[in-house]
Amino acid sequence: MPHQRLRKFNTRDAYPDQSLDNDLCMVVRAGNHIFMRGQTAMALDGRIVGVGDPAAQAENAMECVKTLLEEAGAKLEHICKITIYITDREYREPVYRVVGKWLKGVYPVSTGLIVKGLAKPEYLMEIDVDAVIPDDEARSRKPARHAVSKRRAAKKKAAKKKAPRRRR
Question: For residue 135, how far is the Cα from the chain centroid?
Fold first, then answer.
């Protein structure tokens, strides 16, 4: 099975204030393994939420994690490893409380790091997630297409229908 790369984007769009041009995606499904881009205060629509509030940023990050896992055909229960980056030691408790609420009963391995900074100065925390879908569930769970891709596909289909047909 080829890798499935979901929510593709280019860094020039995500970080217009920086001179970047990298083709990336939000999540990759490689067989039963799910690899996710670090989730932060950036909502899936590109808005920055929770400026100055590490708990609100963690809440947003976990909402994004759940959505992206579901789009890849996985669930929160499939998370195996999380790495949490915080920019200040005092953010540890509010961020970990939020993550703990979302992952109650999951028991992933976890690493926490205090870092000097993240991609944008507004980001106070970032969560990196790896998950594995159990074999017995992988056969029945296929990745979902997210709403933006569905809208694009619908627009293309509508455009094809409206295009004048050539006579032979």
Answer: 22
pLDDT digit string, tens, across residues 102-132: 999 999 999 999 999 999 999 999 999 999 9
Provide the token pair at 117: 């900074």
- Whether 164 has a pLDDT exceeding 60, the answer reads no
Query: What is the side-by-side strand order in the sheet with 109-114?
Result: 4-10, 23-30, 33-36, 125-132, 79-86, 109-114
Q: Length of the chain in residues, anyone? A: 168
Identify the structural domains of the chain with CATH numbers, from first to last. 4-142 (3.30.1330.40)
For residue 9, list its beta bridge partners: 24
CA-closest candidate to residue 73, choices 142, 129, 139, 8: 142
CB contact at 8 A, 143 and 69:
no
Q: pLDDT of 25-65, one tens digit each?
A: 889 999 999 999 999 999 999 899 999 999 999 999 999 99
Measured in Å, how far apart are the chain's first and last C-alpha atoms?
A: 41
Q: Identify any residues that bridge with 109 across adjacent strands, giving them in sequence order.
A: 81
How far apart are alpha carbons 155 and 150 in whole angstroms?
9
Contact yes or no for 31/133 (Cβ under 8 A): no
Give the integer Cα–Cα distance in Å for 52 and 55.
9
* Alpha carbon distances (Å) from 80 to 72, 126, 147: 15, 17, 27
